[in-house]
Every structure is written in C-alpha cells, then in structure tokens.
Amino acid sequence: MLKGEHISKAYKEQLVLNDLSISLASGEIYGLIGPSGSGKTTLIKVLLGLEKLTKGEVALFGRKPSISAFHHLGYMAQSDALYEELTCKENLDFFATIQGLRGRQRKERMMAVAKMVHLENDLQKRVLHFSGGMKRRLSLACALLHQPKLYILDEPTVGLDPIIRQSLWSLFHQLKTEGATIIVTTHVMDEVYRCDRVGLLQSGKLLAEGSPDDLLQTYQVDNIEAIFMREEEGVQC
Ligand code: ADP
C-alpha cells in the first residue's frame, strides 16, 4: 500500500531524512513518532510525492506517487488547508465536490463526517472564527469525506483537548475496524500506545520500529521516551 526504501532527503546542506525505509501493512495504525524537527512531515511529504527524494524509492499503491493517488487516500496536512472566509459547511461542500461526491451521497457524507469530528453544531460558522482545534477537526473531516482506504494524518491531534483527542483516537480505531490503514504522526508520547506499530524518528533516522509492547521489551524500558534517551546517550541495546 505504502512503501519507502532507503529514503534520503536533503534541503541544501541539511540532511533531513537519512537512508530510511518504511513499509505499511494493510489494516494497521502506524505511528510515526519523534520530536519536533525530526523529519516526520518531510517523510510524509516524500511518501506522497509532494517533495522530491534526494535518494531512494517510494511506492504508493504499488506505483510512483502521483496526483491521482489523492483520490484514494485521505491526507491531512500539518497546516490546515481550509478557506477561512467560508463556513464549515461550505468547506466540506468544496472538498466533497473535489472528491467527486454528488447529490444525496454528498450531503450524507458531509453530515456524517461533521458528526464524527463533533462539528455538527458549527456547520454555519465561518472558519475564520474557529479555534485551532476546530480547524484541525475540520481538516480531518475533509480527509474522511470520500471514505478512502488509506489515511495519512500529519499531527491530527495537535492542539486538541484530551476528550476530543480520545474521541478521535476511537474514530481512528473504528476506521481501522472498517478496513482502513492509517499512518499518523505525533510528538505526543502517550499516543504511541494507541498504535499497532510505531517508528521512532530522530534526526531523520528510524531509531526503532515495532509494536509498542515489543519495543518496551526489546529495549527493557518502561516507556518509549526512554528509548529516545538511550539512543541519545549512545547506549547499545
Ligand atoms: P517534524 O515534522 O518532525 O517537526 P520536519 O519534517 O517539519 O520535522 O522538519 C525536519 C527538518 O527539515 C527541520 O530542521 C526543518 O527545519 C527542515 N525543513 C523542513 N522543510 C524544509 C524546507 N522546505 N526547506 C528547508 N528546510 C526544511
């Protein structure tokens, strides 16, 4: 579904991704975890073909990433690509049209996704007056509209209060139950434990990869932060 091999990406002199390989298994929630600046967003962008690789190869749905792949995936970027002058409903309507939804199906999906992200009572509000968290939720709703099988979510829960965050994670698990595959980035460590598998990213390298339980066992630590600390201190496993 999504695979990257020996990916390197440099911006001028700075090597942001350093010979990194990643592969998503169908039906899993894969968490890309790492501190700010570790390269998560850059990795997402190269996997989508939005940034050119310096080295390596990416296969999205078995082929080189292209714009047509966006019809088959739900992408939520780190910065909200919303129209602030439009209302919540108008934004949903716009993105539903782009995704080719028509007639009754369009209306039904718009209402369904608004409910999923708890914005059903804010449909008539202009996005200009939305909080940062509401914008994140609307961006997520836009990514959910066309019921894709692959979701690529860059920091979907940043700036959200714990209750909404919890409900979005429940939603991700529900999507997975319905057959979706999800790659999600976060720097919030407690979200690690909600993923089936995680990749720990530091300075553009994948430090470790596996299920949260396996990682804790392999590294003999009580929490995932400790793996980052150990690697920083140069402790060999
Ligand atoms: P993260 O998502 O983990 O916070 P990013 O992928 O956004 O990390 O950034 C990783 C590094 O790449 C940072 O040092 C950032 O400044 C740099 N970077 C990202 N995008 C660009 C760009 N377009 N031009 C130059 N440097 C960039």
UniProtKB/TrEMBL annotation:
Residues 2-228 form the ABC transporter domain. Keywords: ATP-binding, Nucleotide-binding. One of its GO terms (molecular function) is ATP binding. Pfam families: ABC_tran. The keyword Lyase does not apply. The keyword Methyltransferase does not apply. SUPFAM superfamilies: P-loop containing nucleoside triphosphate hydrolases. This is ABC-2 type transport system ATP-binding protein. InterPro entries: AAA+_ATPase, ABC_transporter-like_ATP-bd, ABC_transporter-like_CS, P-loop_NTPase.
